[in-house]
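Quick one: structure for this chain?
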Amino acid sequence: MSLTYEFQYTNITSATTTQIATGRGRLHSIVVNTTAAGAISIIDNTAGTTANIGTLKASVVEGTYLYDVSFSKGLRIVTAGASDITVCWAQD
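Got it. Here's what it folds into:
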């Protein structure tokens, strides 16, 4: 059985906590559009700030960071600085 995903995107440009999705889904990638001003925490949950999928460190350079992982509770991104990132994701 082959699964295909129709990815959506969310652009984040400030130091904030962004609840991108609730429930099950897939994180495809994070595109860092400008060098990150602070750490970027990637969380499988609808609350909290502790990274459990991953963390991109402060000053990470422009580029596409591929994850291709499933999340079960939700997708939450915490940006510690005013970074310009695009999160590519899909809801199950």
